Amino acid sequence: MVVHRRKPWQLPESAITPEEAVLAHAAAKRSGPSRRALLGAAAGLGALGLGGGPAARAQGRDPIGWWNAQIANDPSRGLYPAARNDRYTLDRPLTEARQAIVYNNFYEFGSHKEIWRAAQRLETRPWTVTIDGLVASPKTVDIDTLIRAFPLEERLYRFRCVEAWAMAVPWTGFPLAALIRWAEPLGGAKYVIFQSFENRAIAPGFRQTWYPWPYADAFTLEECVNELALMVTGIYGKPLPPQMGAPIRPILPWKYGFKQPKSVVRITFVAERPVGFWERLQPSEYGFWANVNPDVPHPRWSQATERMLGTGERRPTLIWNGYGEHVAHLYAGLAHERLFA
Ligand SMILES: Nc1nc2c(c(=O)[nH]1)N[C@H]1C(S)=C(S)[C@@H](COP(=O)(O)O)O[C@H]1N2
Ligand SMILES: [Mo]
């Protein structure tokens, strides 16, 4: 972990992990201990690392090897690769798999980018997803039943983190709209909450009690049924690796990454607008909509450009992450809202 001695806004982008900087600040305000003590404690957690058994030693440090070993026993592996849906095209090269799977945000496993090894402790079978709240009948479904309930397809999407790094990846999944229909929301349902796993024993981040665990965030029902919204179960023609949110995560590619919880265990339909993980932690910096927008800077840095993982190429940020033709109409008349595109 980098201990910042300068103010965050004086740091070069390469040296900053903005969401982490926010957390240290918020925690210092909340629970009193000095910033340095907090950073020291967090560094200690990171050093606990991953208990490496024989399998760990055999796979060494190669992330692709880990991934292949992980999915060898995955009951859904026969569904991959899924046919590509060519409707969604890219304006840039795909990010290399090797780059995308070793640079992740997954705070349950550490508040830095190198969590991929620690995340191997996430066991993605057995796994169930509970659908509850304002639905005709709440239910809990086994992940392999869910994955087989809807045909999988591959889509090439841009992805943008609020920290200004970006990637372009082939996701595999099924339309979120199909899951919503199947869930049978009641008339009063207006928002849908996605909640991440909460097995506190396997992930050191849960001990960082200043975070509002479990990780969760929400979208409007209308956003969820947009054709771009995808329930993602795989990437690069294989089931997701744990560090990328296996076994299932929503992807709404016009929004910043932080809105989209990984490794989902619960989907809840509600009437009132929920407050998500980052908005709860730091409401002055993160809001409900979080649509990608080059013209709305983060309070501590510009959003005008983004940095592609792997190549480091700088590109201009696209309004709605380039998906305006599909989503701009969802936000007509809402331009006055804070942190809104
Ligand atoms: N459960 C959980 N989901 C999460 C996060 C997290 O820390 N925990 N980070 C979010 C953020 S900030 C981003 S940018 C994306 C990163 O996805 P990736 O690591 O697969 O690229 O996951 C999002 N979903
Ligand atoms: Mo992010």
Q: Could you describe the 3D structure shown?
A:
With 341 residues, this protein is α+β, with helices and mostly antiparallel strands. The protein has two domains: 14-61, no CATH class; 80-331, Sulfite Oxidase, Chain A, domain 2. Helix content is 22%, strand content 19%. It is built from ten helices and twelve strands. The protein has helices at 18-31, 35-48, 54-59, 63-71, 97-100, 143-149, 176-183, 221-224, 277-281, 324-327; strands at residues 128-133, 139-142, 153-160, 165-175, 191-196, 216-220, 230-235, 238-239, 249-251, 264-270, 305-308, 314-316. The strands form two sheets. Strands 3, 4, 7, 8, 9, 11 and 12 form a seven-stranded mixed sheet that branches. Strands 2-1-10-5-6 form a five-stranded mixed sheet. The radius of gyration is 19 Å and the shape is globular. The model is unreliable at 1-17 and 21-54 (pLDDT under 50). Bound molecules: the ligand Nc1nc2c(c(=O)[nH]1)N[C@H]1C(S)=C(S)[C@@H](COP(=O)(O)O)O[C@H]1N2 and molybdenum atom. The site of the ligand Nc1nc2c(c(=O)[nH]1)N[C@H]1C(S)=C(S)[C@@H](COP(=O)(O)O)O[C@H]1N2 has 17 residues, from loops. Residues 19, 104-108, 161, 196, 215, 244-245, 257-258, 260-263 line the site of the ligand Nc1nc2c(c(=O)[nH]1)N[C@H]1C(S)=C(S)[C@@H](COP(=O)(O)O)O[C@H]1N2.
